[in-house]
Amino acid sequence: MQINKFVIGGLFILGAVVFLIWSSTAATSEYFLTVDELNAKGADVINRNLRVSGAVIGDTIKYDPQTLTLTFEVAHVPGDQAVIEDEGGLAEALHQAVIDPTRARMKIVYVGPMPDLLRHEAQAIVTGKLGDDGVFHADELLLKCPTKYEEAVPEQAASN
Amino acid sequence: MIADFGYGVLLVTFLVTVYSVFAAIYGEFKKKPAMVESARRAMLLTWPLLTLTAGILIYLLINNHFEVQFVYEVTSRSMPTYLKVTAWWGGQAGSLLFWSWLMSAFASLVTLRKWDRDREFLPWVIVVASVTMAFFIGMNVFFENPFAKLYQSFDGQIAPHTFQPANSILFTPRDGQGLNPLLRHPGMVIHPPMLYLGFVSFVIPYAFALAALITGRTDDRWIRLTRRWALWAWLFLSAGLVLGGRWAYDVLGWGGYWGWDPVEIAAFMPWLTGTAFLHSVMIQEKRGMLKHWNMLLVILTYDLVIFGTFLTRSGVLSSVHAFAQSAIGPLFFAFIGLTLITSVALLIYRWDSLKSETKMTSMLSREALFLLNNLLFMSILVVCFWGVIYPLISELFTGQKVTVGPPFYERATSPLFATLMLLMGIAPLSAWGHSTVKTLGRAIWKPTVGAVIITAVLYATYTQNIIALIGFFLVALVILVTLYEYWRGAYARQRSQDENILASFWNLTGRNRRRYGGYIIHLSMMLMAIGILGIEIFQVETQGTIAVGDSLQLSGYTIKYKEVASWDDRPSGVNYTRAVVEVYDKDGKYLGNLNPRKDYYYDSQQPMTIPGQLASLKDEVYVLLIDWEPISPVGTTFKVFVNPLVNWLWLGSLLFLVGVIIAAWPDKDPERVAVRAGKRAHQTSAAD
Fold first, then answer.
1. Which domain holds residue A117?
2. CATH code, domain with A127
3. Domain count, chain A
4. Which tens digits make up the pLDDT trace of B248-297?
5. B400 and A17: CB-CB below 8 Å?
6. DSSP designation for B541
């Protein structure tokens, strides 16, 4: 009898936690896609919560300070860590993505302060929705700048 | 050459730790105390050796030895000396070394204590600490050598090598890449060491737990020996988390402090198990229960610490922090797997000797509520862990990477946090062993009525937001219960000891530091909760481009733009743009000047936005300088946040430190006190 009381209590908590996790996952999960994968899915993913990663193309960054509207394009970067390693690390993969004109690109719109880390060849991870117009409307913008790589040495070395 | 020497010392340190592991095991099995003593001394040697290694690395960092890859990556000529020193933990190789260095310091501290009554633990504590250290130093020696130098081969390729390859020459870049300016913030300079201190000091309780399992001395001696370690570890870990939050708030410019970033979660997870552990050890000490559970918690904490160290320094998960990527991932997972399996196997082996001494009977007893508290912490841990690994799981099973973001964590954890708060209100009033609705009700009705009144007042004057009201009710309940408990104790003491009430408060806290330190921690958590509720629910923002003399309005505040200026600071290679704005409240009263800034670092081509913050207990006005045109009539663009109550969060953090320090402050050794008291009793009786 005594045992039952605690077992039932424990099961109740377990059930509550499982429910919390399950319902929250179902309500908030978002596909994490590369630009190529996004293009392949096409209309299926319009207006769904998505997270997309790509390489920032510096020339396309435009910022309207009046409306705080930021637009830029990203180029496809492989999603697989092993492929990135094969290309010579993230910095090199980003560099390759940006200089290759055949790579798929995606236009992103974001409203907010211009992030300090946004720059040419940074990795952008955007969360938001793909609009009917094919433009990605980002609610959240994460940036990674892999500057600390040995691959970056030779360029500096050239002037030495 | 000095770099090679550094590598040599590192290699020797590695061998010394490996020796210490084997000497301790050999000495224990062959019953040769001299070997164990030798292992202990070997362990003591690691700290001076690693200090020497670190000293060499710092020498290289300060003196711009850019031929060393690590120095090249984390420093540049324009950085001030103190940042060059702290660049030690600015990259992967250095932070691994930093980890080992802290570990060796703590391991030495532990081995220097008196071991008279705990001889049997000593060899195994040495083994666990040395194995952990050997793993981290081994990472440095074999994979992430901080002393590797850049060599240029004859075909022009430049690559880091530990030893000079054939047909190559040493390559010295003219300047280093430097630390990302975003990381040059005081909060960021001390945040990693704090986190690491917390991480590393949790290894000590784990080492004692394993020693207890191995030797079979599974009474609660190991807990009594390590309780304070765990508290200090917890203090550092908490301080690290708060400092990280403060950094994000000051630097990242979105007016937030916590983004449920995988790396933040990685540091939060050992905090959760650690917090659960600190609570449940009390049950073991008082009631002899939950012994398996405590072992499991300390094992989990240790492996989460290793996992956290790995996550913060690798690129497995996308994150603002994950700026390093390397091949050490699989090794970390292997190490975590190995230690976890070994520890759990030992726990199962000793399962029977860890049986509870008493049975839990009442659902409302203190111990049952503590158990519930533990389950809630573990539930939050499960939520966090699920969120972190969900992308990996979904990719494994569906081939499609699916992630969850902050909304997931907020949704799944907030009911759990709310229940924890409710528990914090009830548990201090419940009795050990047996407690009924009636006894509990008698204790709790006054604080509950008080909390209801406070909530009603808030409803009438401050907010009608239902979630905020629930939150404030819980906060008020916990604060009232805690103060009520405190006051009851002090009042009883005042009556019995005939002291004034302030002296009673002071002495009460001094006599039972753990309990009242704990209460202060509860109070501090509630202050932090006020801040979190404030910024999460009531944050408002606006933006606008205005000319000099114009103003923006937000939430009763007027932000008036006075001027903007821009200048170069040549020696540090930074361009500063600084605006001056004045803040007025709704009655037009002048509140203060703010100077939002935008700095531009030429060498790294990195802008950095520094907000102007006007803090008060009610609100914080947080102004960002977005864009400016010196001559254009259009003006300058600002983004303004009003973050209500957020400063309670930082205030609560300070009170938190006070609470933990009170709880963790060393007592006089209780047993020695007992011996002395016994002697005195003996003398008096002899005199009779």
1. 30-147
2. 2.40.50.140
3. 1
4. 888 776 667 888 887 788 899 999 999 999 999 988 888 888 889 999 99
5. no
6. E
- Asked whether residue A3 is assigned to any structural domain, the reply reads no
Residue A1 within a domain: no
**Å between A111 CA and nearest CA of chain B:** 11
What would the two tokens of residue B443 be?
């204790």
* Distances A37 to A42, A94, A138, B397, B401 between C-alpha atoms, Å: 9, 17, 17, 17, 11
Q: B257, B248 in Cβ contact below 8 A? A: yes
Edge-to-edge strand ranges of the sheet holding B636-644: B540-546, B636-644, B619-628, B612-615
Q: What is the DSSP code (8-state) at residue A58?
A: E
Lowest average pLDDT, out of A63-67, B280-284, B586-590, goes to A63-67
Average pLDDT estimate for B374-379: 94
Q: Which of B247, B320, B374, B604 to mutate to test the interface with A (most CBs of A within 10 A)?
A: B320
Q: Sketch the domain layout of chain B as residue ranges.
A: 1-179, 182-281+288-348+363-383, 539-648
Determine the residue of chain B that is closest to A67 in CA distance.
B544
Mutate to test the interface with A, among B153, B158, B377, B423 (most CBs of A within 10 A): B158
- Nearest residue to B63 (alpha-carbon basis) of B90, B92, B89, B84: B84
- Give me the residue label for tokens 């102004």: B623
In chain B the first and final C-alpha atoms are separated, in Å, by 76
Query: What is residue B327's three-state secondary structure?
Result: coil
Burial class (CB in 10 A: 0-12, 13-18, 19+), B178: buried
Q: Is residue A15 part of a domain?
A: no
Distance CA B270, CA B305 (A): 6
Q: What is the DSSP string of A66-123?
A: TTTEEEEEEEE----HHHHHHTTSHHHHHHHHHH-TTS-EEEEEEESSPPTT--TT-E
pTM for this predicted structure: 0.89
Residue B180 has pLDDT above 50, yes or no: yes
Residue with tokens 């300016």: B181
Residue A61 lies in a domain: yes
- Cβ-nearest to B609 among A33, A66, A116: A116
Provide, as residue numbers in chain A, all residues whose Cβ is less than 8 Å from the Cβ of B391.
Answer: 32
- Note the Cα A30 to chain centre separation in Å: 11
